[in-house]
Structure formats: C-alpha cells, structure tokens
Amino acid sequence: MTGSEEAGDDVRNGDELESLIAHIETRLDSRFEFPDSKVDGGAATLGLLRIMLIHAHAIVAISNTPFAEAATANVRVMFEAWVEISTILEPGLEESNARRSVVFGLLEFRDHGDATGRLDEADFAKLDEVLRPYRTKYPELVADVEVQRTKKDPRSSQYWTGTSRSVLLAKMEQRGLASKLRSVYKMLSWDAHHVIAVALRSKIHANDDGSLETRFGILQPAGEYAEVNRFLAVQTLVKSWFAIATYLGVDPG
Questions:
Q1: Which terminus in the chain has less CB density within 10 A, N or C?
Q2: pTM of the model
Q3: How many Å apart are CA 141 and CA 228, to the nearest integer?
C-alpha cells in the first residue's frame, strides 16, 4: 500500500480492512530496525497500533451480522488510539511525549489494579520493575506525572498530555493531519453512549384509543453501519501505520 492510496473518502475503502490488517500484522511480525534514539517513540506507538489491530478484528467479526452497530465502540477506541499516536509523534517532541505517555499509563494501570484487586503482588512487582528505569533516568518526568495525576494539579489528570481530547483534536487539525475531527469524535461518542443510543432509536406512538407508548427502531440498517465502521477503521489504521513508519524510517510496505 502506497501513500497515494491513503487518500479518499469513499466508504468502499472499508472493503480493504481484512487485507490491511493482514498487511500490517505481517510487517509487525517481520524484522525491521530503527535508531536507538527513537526506541521510546517506537515502543509507545507500535503498542497502540497493536491495540488498534485487535479492535479492527472485532469490527470485521461482526460486520456481516445484524449487530454491526455494536462495533461503533471499537471504532471509537481506534480513533482515540490514532489521536494518541498523532499526539506522541508531534514533530520535535516524539521521544519526550512517548516517555510521558508510557509513565502516565503505567501509573494509571497500577492504580487500576489496586482499586479493582485484579493485580497481585507479583504483578505490582513487574510494574515497578518496568517503571524503575524511568525513575532512574527521568526522575523529574516521573515526579511531574505523579503530581499531574493528583486532583490539586490544574492540568487534566485524565490524559497524559494534561489537556482535553478536544484540545488534542484541534492541534491535529492545525497540523493539517485531518479536518472536522471534533465532529467525527462527537458522532462516535454519542453513537457509543448506551443511554443516547436508546433515546435516538425511540419514538412516541399514539394509539387509536389516545394512549401513548414508546417504540424502538433502528437508525440505519446493519449493512450501512458496517460500511461506516470499516471505512473509519481503514482510515485510522492507514494514517497511524504511515505516521509510525515515517517516524521510524521503515518501509510501510
């Protein structure tokens, strides 16, 4: 797949999803090298790309079922991962952004495991082991992230960037990476919201006797949902893979 094939807003591009998944997975499973100076950026973004591929498989799995609409949540995750990758790869800040993202994520995961009880002592020991090099080599970074994650800090404690996702989308638009991103994200957010999803499909029906009742229907046929979901999955995967490959200096294939 070449860079010229990335463009285009034809929903039929979603037909390429299975072959695109296979192509990227083959490249990731093959041996390729990149400079040591880009190791943090490579690790962070390639990890996010792996997550995107998992959700792309889920979208494929239910594309030809009556439940294709359910994959909207998977598309939203892929969209958010693409935003993360694009933000990490902001020119000139790639490695520092990657380190901050990783440290923030590790601390979040540690707290999640503590709150849910899903991690045991061995798991916490492994997390501490992964964090140790960052604490040793970048103590100021780790300390600053720990402060950011407190409620007293004015920065957002929900994102490693310290800003809202809307701000990140605006910056991506300013960098010319895409347009109308905030509108797309709002659409995905509302469609994936369980309460709103039900409300949008409801209507008030008046019976002949004057009584009223709530009825539920569909907004789109399953096939149309599948087309849109597959299209967005292809777009986010292509843009993410090309951005990562370009930064690392590897052949995207």
A1: C
A2: 0.81
A3: 40
Place of tokens 């986010």: 236
- Kindly list the averaged pLDDT for each block of 10 residues, start to end, along the chain of length 253: 41 79 94 92 97 97 87 90 95 97 95 92 95 96 93 83 85 80 70 57 72 65 86 93 96 88
> What is the C-alpha to C-alpha distance for residues 12 and 68, in angstroms, rounded to an integer?
16
Q: Take residue 121 and report the two structure tokens written for it.
A: 């002592």
User: How many CB atoms neighbour CB 156 within 10 A?
Assistant: 15
Q: 252 is written with which tokens?
A: 């995207």
Rounded to whole angstroms, the Cα distance separating 157 from 18 reads: 37
Distance, in Å, from the CA atom of 234 to the CA atom of 229, rounded to the nearest integer, reads 9
What is the residue extent of each domain of the chain? Answer: 1-90+175-179+221-253, 95-171
161 vs 23: CA distance, rounded Å: 31
